[in-house]
Write a structure and sequence with these properties.
321 residues, mainly beta, five-stranded mixed β-sheet, 5 helices, 21 strands, 11% helix
Amino acid sequence: MERTFREQLFFLLLCLSVLKGDCRYIENNDISKDELHSLFTSDLRREIPDLLMYRRPLRCLDMVAMEGQFTFTAETPQLSCAVFFMAEPNEVISVEYDSVDIDCSGGDIITMFDGWVMKGEKFPSSQDHPLPLYERYVDYCDSMGSVRKSVRSSQNVAMVFFRVHSAGSSFTLTVRKHINPFPCNVISQSPEGSYTIVIPQQHRNCSFSIIYPVAIDISEFSLGHHNNFPKRSLPGCAESGDYVQLLGGSGIDTSKLLPITDLCISFTGPTHMKIGCDNTVVRMVSSGRFVSRVSFSYRLLDSQELQTIKLNNVEDFCFNN
């Protein structure tokens, strides 16, 4: 039976229940299953008038997938909290600090991370993100003397870690979404859909992460330097400098996922695969010499399909690692 987006994210967060950033940013959080499940009891997305700002309180562990103003007020000390932000694939997220009442000198923190961190793994990986890792952390207390009150993500996901030691500590964040004309590094909100990754002559890596076991069809693949060749998968595609990878695994860091196949010859026509991993990733590597493009569609595998591929090596890898 297909999981909804909220149910799947609950499953993902439950499986990766120990949230870790760098040790100075976040610690373990003793959250019960019921408390975690309560994250998804309200609609993550809803239609609101353009002139009306949506407002609601934040929980210690929360998911936000809409624009609005969000306030956290501590009733007790909260030492390990995180808010996950998510937008559409063609959007980035800005987080603005509207009002902050925390004790920075007493060890309180509010830190935005450009991406997601789960179980010590980061999305996008350090190999795929344009910024060095230390620049992806923006700490409110470290930047109090600057005029920078708003931080923008590089992709459709971001998160905020926070820790407060005293009851009554609070802060308010305004979250906005902005169109990204050339999206790179995306976590899909849905278990089914279609997408095209385009890298316009830039030396970068882009990945599309689907946090479900899926059937995937690659319908078009153009890397600029090869044309009218039959489709095929080559060992050593990395040597070409321009190629597409299919990856699978249980984490979110693409550098730690199992490489299923590499594609480095252009083609038009369907290539079909079923991947029984919790996370399936289409990753494009570009040298910057060409306009690279890959189009694909995907859908959630049903329970019968998952049983059928249970003896597959990829499935074994995904469930045993």
